[in-house]
Amino acid sequence: MVMGSLREETQVVVIGSGPGGYVAALRLADLGKDVLLVEKRNRPGGTCLLEGCIPSKSLIHAVEVKKHTLGAEDFGLSFGEMKIDTDKLRNWTDEIVSGLSNGIKGLLKRRGVTVIEGHARFTSPTSLALEGGEVSGIDFEQAVIATGSSLNRLPEGIVPSVWSSADALRLPSVPGSLLVVGGGYIGLEMGLVYQGLGSEVSVVEFFPRLLMGADQDLVDIMVKQVDERLHEVLLESRVQSISETGGDAGNGFDVEIEHNGETITRHYDQVLVAIGRRPNTDDIGLETTKAVVDERGHIVTDEQCRTAEPNVFAIGDAAQGMMLAHKASREGKVAAEVIASETSPEHEGAVFDNRAIPAVVFTDPEIAWTGLTEREAEEQGIQINVGKFPLAALGRARTLGRTDGLVKVIAEPDTGLVLGVGIVGPLASELIAEGTLAVEMGATLHDLMVTIHPHPTLSEAIMEAAEVAAGEGVHVNPPRKVR
User: Fold this and answer.
1) Residues 6+ apart with CB under 8 A from 452
2) Residues 289-341: tens digit of each pLDDT
3) Which H/E stretch holds residue 259?
4) With contact defined as beta carbons under 8 Å apart, do 144 and 24 qualify?
5) Which domains does the chain have, with CATH numbers?
6) What pairing do the DSSP bridges indicate for beta strands 253-259 and 119-124?
7) 269: which DSSP letter?
């Protein structure tokens, strides 16, 4: 067989095997379509599984176990010396990733989805050329672009030996001091991982506060806790230069930072640059189709995930909208059902019309929000009622020794329609699903209030916050009456 000498034909080709692509392929196969899945890596899962969500959450969990173990002395439990085996931690994380990736392989195989390795480029609206594999091209009827995203390129002049978040997840070492450039969720999550492993961590952020996308009151609670663990946080600051010191031996980095109108110089053993992600749409031959990209490189789609080329769909980070794995998975199912509806009328009307897409930051404490935020309501001039319930007033939070947080419910004043939910505190990532369901189903404050929540649990805080928003809070002091 000559490398790159074969062409394949299929009904649907899916480009990319991340949480959008492999879900789309599985759903298409379930709906009776002949599916080829193209992946340029040697295993499926995409960035989220291979070098993002899953490995980072594995490390975050390990660090949280350490933190909670050390904190157990507060209620009478003490242990011997804490030791960290980074090799074992790295292997444990790798095993999790491999197990999940192999699970995806098994699902694809059992559904009859053919997986082809290679980098795909459109050569027309119905054909692809492939590089790096045994297949030279694919002819298809429909295509789903699920190419995901990549880390933003480092600015010119940045030495290549600094870490990206993908580098940091591989645990190459635990530096004595670490500078994290970027105060978004990636930078904070990874910074706290390395702080937990023993590094002295500093953060430089260009904007006036951390996590600009979240409401200030949620972030403030997290920052109060994080400030105690971070060495230095420089807001409204910009890295001007990074130079490696010590020649080939590598003795760290000198970093010039613009802060408060002055240039300051700091030395760090390692630097981690976490400055966001960009869609992988600039090298896939879109110019041979009618598909349109916006100024940030995201493909423009309609509510059916269809591009301007009628037979070509785009989902996940490659398309517009929030760059989140769970959004990609939902879009993958929508695109599959739209494609199948051409021959299966029962799937007609499939659209991506979700009212809420939850966002989670896995700091400690966690932050999660869904639906409308207070910041967005203010920017859009939307009148809202807000009910906030502090975890300090919640029995379960006290039994956990975790009263550092709150839950808030945002509602429409006249109808009580739930518009959004925000949470900061332990297990916010798990609790936010109830808020998302409430927004999605058009629930009201009354619906949340009369739903019996088990006691004692953290979930009660959602019910309590709804009561506060409705002016019926039982476990908070009533508003002071004006005589």
Assistant:
1) none
2) 999 999 999 999 999 999 999 999 999 999 999 999 999 999 999 999 999 98
3) strand 253-259
4) yes
5) 6-150+278-347 (3.50.50.60), 165-275 (3.50.50.60), 359-469 (3.30.390.30)
6) unpaired
7) S
CB 198 within 8 A of CB 62: no
The strand pairing partners of 422, in sequence order, are: 369, 408
List the beta bridge partners of residue 408. Answer: 388, 422
What is the spatial distance between Cα 451 and Cα 466, in angstroms, rounded to a whole number?
11
What pLDDT band is residue 479 in, cutting at 50, 70 and 90?
low
130 bridge partner residues: 120
Hey, is 344 helix, strand or coil? coil
How many other C-beta atoms are found inside a 10 Å radius of the C-beta of residue 476? 15
Gap between the Cα atoms of 226 and 196, Å rounded: 11
Which residues are 321's β-sheet partners? none
Residues designated as active site? 455
Put simply, whether the predicted model's pTM sits higher than 0.85 gets the answer yes
Cβ contact 175:190 at 8 Å: no
Proportion of the chain in helix, strand, coil states, percent, rounded to 5 = 35, 25, 40
Task: Tell me how far apart the terminal alpha carbons of the chain are, to the nearest angstrom.
Answer: 90
DSSP secondary structure letter of residue 483: -
With contact defined as beta carbons under 8 Å apart, do 337 and 315 qualify? no
What is the distance between the alpha carbons of residues 196 and 225, in angstroms, rounded to a whole number?
A: 13
Euclidean distance between CA atoms 369 and 215, whole angstroms: 9
Would you call 53 helix, strand, or coil by DSSP?
A: helix
| CA pair distance 255, 178, nearest whole angstrom | 11
* Coil, strand or helix at 38: strand
pLDDT 10s digits, 225-269: 998 899 999 999 999 989 888 754 468 999 999 999 899 999 999
CB atoms within 10 A of CB 71: 12
**Which residues pair with residue 265 across a beta bridge?**
256
CA 397 remoteness from chain centre: 26
